[in-house]
Structure formats: structure tokens, C-alpha cells
Amino acid sequence: MNIRSMAAVLAATVMLPLGAAHATDLEVTHWWTSGGEAAAVAELAKAFNATGNKWVDGAIAGSGGTARPIMISRITGGDPMAATQFNHGRQAEELVQAGLMRDFTDLAKKEGWDKIVRPAGLLKSCTFEGKIYCVPLNIHSWQWLWLSNDAFKKAGVAVPKNWDEYVAAAPALEKAGIVPLAVGGQAWQSTGLFAVLTVAIGGKDIYQKVYGDKDAKVAAGPEMAKVFKAADDARKMAKGTNVQDWNQATNMVITGKAGGQIMGDWAQGEFQLAGKKAGVDYTCLPGLGVNEVISTAGDAFYFPVLKDAAKTKAQEALASSLLDAKTQVAFNLKKGSLPVRGDVDLAAANDCMKKGLEILAKGNVVTSTDQLITQDTQKQLEDLMSQFFANTSITAEEAQKRFVAIFSKAG
Amino acid sequence: MAAHTQPGRPNQLFRNLNSKIASIPMMLTAVVIFLGGTIWTVVYSFTNSKLLPRLSFVGLEQYERLWDTPRWIVSIQNLATYGCLSLIFSLTIGFLLAALMDQKIRFENTFRTIFLYPFALSFIVTGLVWQWILNPEFGVQSVVRSLGWTTFTFDPLYNSDIVIYGILIAALWQGTGLVMCLMLAGLRGIDEDIWKAARVDGIPMWKTYLFIIIPMMRPVFVTTLVIIASGIVRIYDLVVAQTSGGPGIASDVPAKYVYDYMFFAQNLGQGFAASTMMLLAVAIIIVPWAYLEFGGRKRG
Known about the structure:
The complex is a heterodimer.
Chain A: H1 2-15, E1 25-30, H2 35-49, E2 54-59, H3 63-76, E3 83-87, H4 93-97, H5 105-111, H6 113-116, H7 121-124, E4 127-128, E5 131-132, E6 134-136, E7 138-139, E8 144-148, H8 149-155, H9 163-175, E9 179-181, H10 187-202, H11 204-212, H12 216-220, H13 222-237, H14 246-254, E10 258-262, H15 267-273, E11 282-286, E12 294-295, E13 299-302, H16 309-323, H17 325-335, E14 338-339, H18 351-362, E15 365-366, H19 369-372, H20 375-390, H21 396-409
Helix pairs in contact in A: 1-2, 2-17, 8-9, 10-11, 10-13, 10-20, 13-21, 20-21
Chain B: H1 2-5, H2 17-22, H3 24-44, H4 61-67, H5 70-101, H6 108-116, H7 123-133, H8 140-146, H9 163-188, H10 192-200, H11 205-216, H12 218-233, H13 237-242, H14 254-264, H15 268-299
Helix pairs in contact in B: 3-15, 4-15, 5-9, 5-12, 6-9, 7-9, 9-12, 14-15
């Protein structure tokens, strides 16, 4: 697979001279740096270079938490890139309000984005005061449990079909020297995991009331207490993970050192890169096998306002190439995410992606946390969850109290 | 110096004119950048600025939230523990090493270079090196286990209760060399005759050090103290490289809280409030001390 991704990059560079006459360099920043992600980005670069321009890759390692402050300070500091990745939602909200982002309403009307982008909520989160400021690229959902079939075989238990069976199988895994649940040390991972538990154990309504309406009463209620109980189980199962990055944790599942991982479907790119087959080597359970609901998180590209006319024009070419049906298929197959267009053919998708597409078609979706809460609330939740997962002296009840306090003040 | 040659000049403003003109750029930098930036930060800490600064005042709300946040409390506690221990240990170890070096040993230059070497590394490199050394799967723990003690456990960076000591070890390793050098310079500045006199009086060596040499080295100690203390308050990169504040928030420090809330959480107001508290803490410690130290000398 590495050779293939390298070949893609090479192919991209070879194609350059063809359109070199009017080539405009556009710097695109993003935080896709793991093996599967880099392979997917190469597809975007290839598609954009084919329009006669040049994609200048500005990958920032260390996941979104590290990359976003760098991107934002470049934009606010007057040295904007030509295009940048953000997650769907409120991350770029203030940049748009401050007039630093480019308005794409005309292009969107011309190409009829409102007809092709699905679910419609994605385009809505790009919209501010009736104008469209970003291009949705893919749909990622957090609500997946990835299980290593080998690990369960080694422990002598059947591969679980839902969260409860998984918790019940944990002691057997531990006995076999396997970490039951891999959770990386970065704060966003435990925070995301908790939101997944809220959707799966608490249900769609509870999730919407807590994260969407910031209803402190529901956050303090017995349904959320159940979720905290499950989180308590999860942190016990995660003991001994000792890795930081999500892909290192995924690698523990791939190699059978860990029983499973709760992680978004971007983990799938890693399984693919390692040559593992869905259903044979690993099992995926959307909604933890309890509530088959997925969230429509994912990535969108934002385009800062530029002074250079040629670059401004090239931004348009990039925007339409991102939504092009071919790019959507090529990119999403490598990335393990779902396309934002409902009208493309994904015959090559594997079992897990097909499960996701099915759920999407049924409309069993929730809005992602990035769209519902501000970065400030997100950070406060991260502080709480990372402490809760690292320090077992904090009880589930205590954590719930602090959780309620955060939401009662959230905006 | 020029002033002494022309003592009759009446206008004080034009004394040392050359040096005054020469220091204008530095004065401007100090006033505009440091003081101006500080005032700007303090003013905006009373607003509800999010990603971009804006002047809508909310009173003390940011400060109330700050002191209500467990993470801030943890980071203050960590800074206190780390600060006290790092001050005590780097001074003691640094002085002991310097005193040992001062015994006219062979290969002194070699030893001095070895001890000072870690200081040439940045905190980021130091942090990464010690992250590996203290990692239970590659570092000390696995080495000792492979020697036969299979139940040996040493994983400070993965244990919330002792993680700050893991950072302390790395900081001491990096910083004591410099302290040693400063102390050694101080020891070399002591007149040989004092040693001779002490020897004639039959005072044991440790007593000479403790009651004669150390009091004489007061200026060196003060300089060292300032250097160590400023290093303590701004500690950030070492923590980021070693643990990034983890496990959980157990090794968090104030500077990291400020950075996280200003840039990750897109909440400038909260970050400014935290940095104002840091400034206040420094001011409370430094101002009375500086007054005593430097104000006193002028009078004397």
C-alpha cells in the first residue's frame, strides 16, 4: 500500500508539467498524516493538479488539536494559506464572522451543491447568514467499535456483538495478557469515546438534549448516570494502553495486543493499509452494536480571503474538484470515510463502509459534537474526560457533577 | 563615565547623554512591548473574547471560572511542588558538584563539560529523551526487568500521583550543570587566603564551606536563584515533550493551561485571565524581593 500511495504522489508530480503554463500554486493545510490519510490526500492533490494548478501540501502533524491553532494564527496573523481543513461545525465560526473566509455562494448555486450534498445538515453548517463559506468533503462518524478477531480467539471467547458482551469478555482478555480496550492518551480520544457512549447507551434523544440543547437537567439525570457507569467500565478496560496517538492505539488492535477500540471510521484506513479484511480479521460494530446511529462529523475545506487574483481563481477550481464525483470516490475509499454526495457509486466499499452507508440511507444520524458545542466547551470536556480516564480516584458521580457544571454554562 | 569628567553640568537630563540615547531602543521595547502587552492582556482578561479579542466587559467572570476549574488548581499545585523541589535540589546538587570539582581534581575540564552538556540540549530534546528513558516498555523498567527483577515497576510518567517527579528528574538533569558552573565560578572567586586562614585556625572543611564560603557567595546565589526561578515559572516545553500534561491532566502547568485555552479552546479571555494570575504570582514573589535586594544596596 505504501508503494501505491507513493506512486500516487509521483503520478501527481509527473502530471504537473502538462498544465504548467497557467499553474497557480495553492497551499493547502490539513492534519492528515497517518498512512491511510496521506494516501487519501494524494488523491485530492492528483485531482487538483489535473486542473492545471499545483497543490502545495501543508500537512501539519499531531492531529487537529495541534494543527488548528497553527492554521488559525496564520489566518488571523495575515499570512493565510489558500485552503485549509477544518471539521464540520463551529471550529471556524469566528473566522467566518470576522470576514476572513471566502464566500462561495455563487459557485455553490452554479454547481447546485444544495442538491448533491447529503445530509443537508453538512451544507447548513457551512452556511452563515445565508452564505456558503466551506466545501464539505467527507462524512466521518465516531460511533464505531473495532474489534480484533484474533485477540478474542486467543482469549477463547466469541467476538462480542454489542457493548455489554464486550464488557463481559474483558476479564478473559485480561487473563490472556490483552488490553481489552485501547484508548490513546490524547484528550480528544476519551472525550469522543464518551460522546459515543452517550449516543449508544443513552440514545439519540438524550444525546441531542445534552449536547444540542445543553439541558443541565438531563445531563444530571439517571440516563446520563448509566452512561457514566459505562465510561467507568471503559476506563477500567483501557488500563495499560500507554500509547498517545489514535493510530498507535488502532495498531494495538491490528496486531491483536488490544481487544478493541472505540474510534471513528478513520481507523478503517489503518486496517486497510495493514491489509486486514473486514469481517475476517476485524469486526466493526456501528453504535457499539446497541444503537445503530452514526454522527455526521467529518471534514470541510475553508478558503481564506486572498489578495492574489490568480490564487483566488484557483481556489474555485479546487472547490469544485473537491466535490467532483470521481474525487469523492477515490478519496473516501482510501480514507475510510463516506462521500458527501449521495449520487456516487461506492461498489468498491468494504463491509464496514457499506454498513455505514446503509445507516446513512436510513437516516439514523445525529449531529456531530463539533457542530453542537464550541471549542471552549469541547476543551473543558476534554480536561474532564482525560482526567477521569487517567485517574480512577475520581468517581463516576463526581465526574457527572462536573459534566453538568460545564453544560449549565455552555453557550 | 563621562559625567565624572564634567561634574559642573547643571542639567541632570543631559548627563550620560550618549548612553541615554543608546538605550532608547531598549527602553521603547520595554515600555511598548512588555508593559503595553501586559496592560493589553490584563484589560482583555476582563472581557469575554473568544477566538478574536473584543472589548465587551464581563467583570470578573473569567477569574471566577478560572478558580472553579479543577485543571487550573492541579496546575498550580504542580507548579508549587515542582518549583520548591527544583529550587532545593538544583541548588544543593549544583553546589555539591561545584564543591567536589573545586578539590583540584584531575580532568576537571572533562567533568565540567560532561556535567554542563545536558544544558546544551533544548527542553524539547530533554523531554523526549527522558520520555523514552522513563517509558516502562523501553526504558529503565524494562532494563531492570530483563536483568531478572520481573516485578520491578518504575513508570512515573504513567502514574498520576508521581508524574510531576518524572518531569522534575529531567529538569534537574538538564539544569544542574549550569548551576554547578555558576557555583564553581563563585568558589573560584573566593580568595585563597581565606582558605589558608581557615586551615590555620583548624576549622574543618565542611564548616568552612557552610559558615564562611557560602555567606561570601551571596551574590552568586542570588543570580542563580533568579535564573532557576524564572525557569520554573515559565516551564512549558518540558511538560509538553514529556507527557503533554498527561496522564489526564496530572502534570499540567499554568503556562500550558494558558496556551490551551487561548489557542485550542479559542477562548482568549480565559487564557488572558490565567496569564494575569501568573503575572500576579510572579509579582508577589519578585517585587518585595527585588526591592530588598536592589533597593537596599543603593542606600548602603
